[in-house]
Amino acid sequence: MKKLLLLTIIVVIVVALLPFLGNRVVKSELDNNIQTLTSYGIEVAKSSEEATYLSAKKHYEFLVKDSKKFLKYLEQFSDNQLPPYIDAALAGVLVGVDLEYSNFLFSDEVSADIYPLSLSSEMMEGIKKEDKDFYKYLKTLLESRGVLYHINYKIVSEGFDGYIKDIKEEYLLQDGSKIVLNISDAIFDGTGSLIAPTTLNSTIQKIGFNATHDGEEFSLVLNDFTSNSNFKSHSTYTMQANLQSLEYKISGTKKSDVLVDSSDISVNISSNIEGEKAEFDAKSSFKELEIKTQTASFLASGLNYVLRVSDVDKDALEGLRVLLSRTKSSYSNSLQDQIEKSTLNLFSKGLRFDIEEFSLANFSIKDKKDIDGFKIKVNIVLKEDVALHKKSKPSPLSLLQNITLDAKLKFSKEMMAIIYKEVSLSKSMKNYAVEEGDNVVFNVKFLDKKLSINGKQL
C-alpha cells in the first residue's frame, strides 16, 4: 500500500512539473527558425514573453534590416529569381508575430498571428508625402492588426491550417476618391514547410475592390475562389483553381466604359520532370464570358482548352530556366545570346506540342442570335536534330524541316460566314474547305516541308 501511494505521489509530481519543464520541441524549433532569419537579414526589433502554468505566449516584432540577404533566403524556395522591385518593397518592413503553445513537453502544436505593422520605409515615406491623412489611417490600420494571418502549425507532422482576418475597409482620399476593399472568409490548410508547403488548399468567399471618383467607377469582384496544389518539387507539381464568378467594370467614363463578366472558371496546371522527359499540361474552361463596351458586346459560352507539351529534354530545359530567371535581376546582350543558344539547344533535343482541345460552344455579337462556335485539335512534333544548336543563326526553314503538324479545325457554317466577311484574304480558304453537316472542316498537315489542307497542297 505504501509503495502504491509513493508511486502515485511520484506520478502526480512529475505531471505537475511537466509544464514547468517547458515544451522543448516548440522552443527548439522557434530558436532554430529565429536564428535562421537573423542570419538572413531579419532583426528582432522587439520581443516579450508571458507564461502561465499551462501555456506560453511570445510576441516578436521582426524588421527586414537587409532585404537583399532576405531575398536570397526566399529564393531557395522559389523556382525563379525574385524581381529587383521586391527588394525595395521589403526594405524596412516590420512584421508582428504572436505565438502561443502548450507548456506540456509532448505537445507540438503552435498557434501564430502574423500581421504587418509597417510597410517598407520607402513606401511609407512616399504615402506620407502624398497624403498625411491616408498615412495616419494606414499606420493605424496596420498597428491595430487590421491585416492578419492566423496559423495553427504542428511541428512534427508539418500540418497546418488557418485563416486570413476579414477585411472590410473604406477610405475617402483628399481628391474625393473613395476606395473600398473587402476580403471575406479566407481559409487555408496544408502540409509541409510554411514557406514551401508540399500541399496547399484554400478557399475565399469574396475579394472585392472598388474605387469611385467624380462619377467614374472601377471595380473588381471575385466570388467563391478555391484552389488545391501539390508540390513534389520546384518543377513537379499540380495546381487546380476554380472561381464561381469574376466581374471587372469601368463605368462613368463615357468613352472607355467596359464590363467583363465571367462565370464558373476552372484552371488546371501540372508539371512533371520525374520521368525520362519533362511534360507540362494546362487546362482551362469557363461557362460564360460577357464583354461589353460603349460600341460592342460579346457573349460566349462553353470555352475549353487542353494544352500539353511533352518529350522535353530535362537538362536543356533546366539550363534555359536558369538563364531566364537571371533576366529578372539583370539583362545584357551576352545574356540574350546565351538564352538564344540555350533555346536552340532545347529545340535540338526535340519535343511535342498538342492542343488536345480548343473549343467554343457558341457566341453572340451585339446581342444577336447565338452562333455555334468551333473545335480545334493540333499535334506538332519537333524532331531531334543534333546539328541544330551548332548553328549560330539558323533560318526559319532549318526549324521547319524538323516539324510535322497535323491539325483539324472545325467551324460552324455561321461562324465561317462571319470570318469570310470580316477577315481579309479569308475567302481563298473556300477553295480548301470541306463541309461536314453544319460545319466547315479544315484538315491541315505539314510533312516533309509540304503543307496541305484537306489533301490539297499549297
Characterization of the model:
The chain is built from ten helices and 21 strands. It has helices spanning 2-21, 24-39, 67-75, 85-90, 121-130, 132-143, 314-326, 333-348, 396-400, 413-422; strands at 42-51, 55-64, 94-102, 109-118, 149-154, 159-164, 167-172, 178-192, 197-213, 216-231, 237-251, 258-272, 278-293, 297-312, 351-365, 371-382, 403-412, 434-436, 439-447, 450-453, 456-457. The chain has a 21-stranded antiparallel beta sheet that branches. A hairpin with a 5-residue loop joins strand 10 (216-231) and strand 11 (237-251). Helix 5 (121-130) packs across helix 6 (132-143). The radius of gyration is 29 Å and the shape is globular.
In short:
The protein is of the alpha+beta class and 458 residues long. It contains ten helices and 21 strands.
Per DSSP E runs of 2 or more residues, the count of β-strands stands at 21
Proportion of residues in β-strands? over 45%
User: Helicity level, as a percent range?
Assistant: 25-40%
Which shape, going by the Cα principal axes? globular
Topology, please?
Blueprint: H1 2-21, H2 24-39, E1 42-51, E2 55-64, H3 67-75, H4 85-90, E3 94-102, E4 109-118, H5 121-130, H6 132-143, E5 149-154, E6 159-164, E7 167-172, E8 178-192, E9 197-213, E10 216-231, E11 237-251, E12 258-272, E13 278-293, E14 297-312, H7 314-326, H8 333-348, E15 351-365, E16 371-382, H9 396-400, E17 403-412, H10 413-422, E18 434-436, E19 439-447, E20 450-453, E21 456-457
Antiparallel strand pairs: 1-2, 2-3, 3-4, 4-5, 5-6, 6-8, 7-8, 8-9, 9-10, 10-11, 11-12, 12-13, 13-14, 14-15, 15-16, 16-17, 17-19, 18-19, 19-20, 20-21
